[in-house]
């Protein structure tokens, strides 16, 4: 089972490297517009894009993505399936291969999944995407967003009342 996770992790490494190249995946203008609109709404709520790619997917074939996530941090996943998809699935597993969440759409409903996730521990998680559609391949869009971490010094200063914060004295006069 650990070798399966290693293979899936290697798949992610190649996915991550390819995601940064020009030739990755597919182009679906309607899907991109929908993705940009969803991302904008979460950016307005203080989240930022962590990973984002449009990928060519085969019907009913899993697309595993290994992601290092930090305990207590908010992650927002956006998976948009092809408009022709009769089923769109998103699964999340922890480093022990335990299934933590499964979200699914059905034919006739929405073809996108928006899911918030807060890890209970820092670990490498596996997000697995599936689509079922007629034909051999179709486009899919996956975006992972997260909240901005608060720097320890900033959090400490924010916690102090204003009157207790140290003020820098003015420089001595020049002669």
What does the model show?
This protein has helices at residues 2-19, 29-43, 152-159; strands at residues 47-58, 63-69, 75-80, 87-93, 99-106, 112-117, 123-132, 137-147. The model is unreliable at 1-23 and 154-166 (pLDDT under 50). The chain has a single domain, classed as Jelly Rolls. The strands form two sheets. Strands 1-8-3-6 form a four-stranded antiparallel beta sheet, with helices on one face. It contains three helices and eight strands.
Give me the secondary-structure topology.
Elements: H1 2-19, H2 29-43, E1 47-58, E2 63-69, E3 75-80, E4 87-93, E5 99-106, E6 112-117, E7 123-132, E8 137-147, H3 152-159
Antiparallel strand pairs: 1-8, 2-7, 3-6, 3-8, 4-5, 4-7
């Amino acid at each position: 089972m650990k070798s399966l996770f290693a293979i899936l992790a290697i798949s992610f490494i190649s996915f991550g490297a390819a995601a940064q190249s020009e030739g990755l995946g597919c182009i679906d203008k309607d899907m991109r517009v929908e993705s940009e609109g969803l991302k904008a709404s979460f950016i307005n709520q203080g989240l930022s894009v962590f990973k984002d790619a449009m990928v060519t997917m085969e019907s009913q074939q899993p697309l595993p993505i290994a992601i290092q996530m930090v305990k207590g941090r908010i992650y927002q996943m956006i998976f948009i399936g092809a408009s022709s998809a009769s089923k769109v699935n998103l699964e999340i597993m922890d480093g022990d291969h335990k299934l933590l969440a499964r979200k699914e759409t059905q034919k006739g409903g929405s073809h996108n999944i928006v899911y918030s996730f807060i890890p209970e521990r820092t670990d490498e998680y596996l997000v697995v995407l599936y689509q079922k559609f007629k034909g051999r391949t179709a486009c899919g869009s996956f975006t992972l967003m997260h909240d901005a971490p608060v720097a320890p010094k900033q959090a400490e200063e924010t916690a102090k009342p204003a009157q207790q914060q140290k003020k820098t004295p003015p420089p001595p006069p020049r002669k």
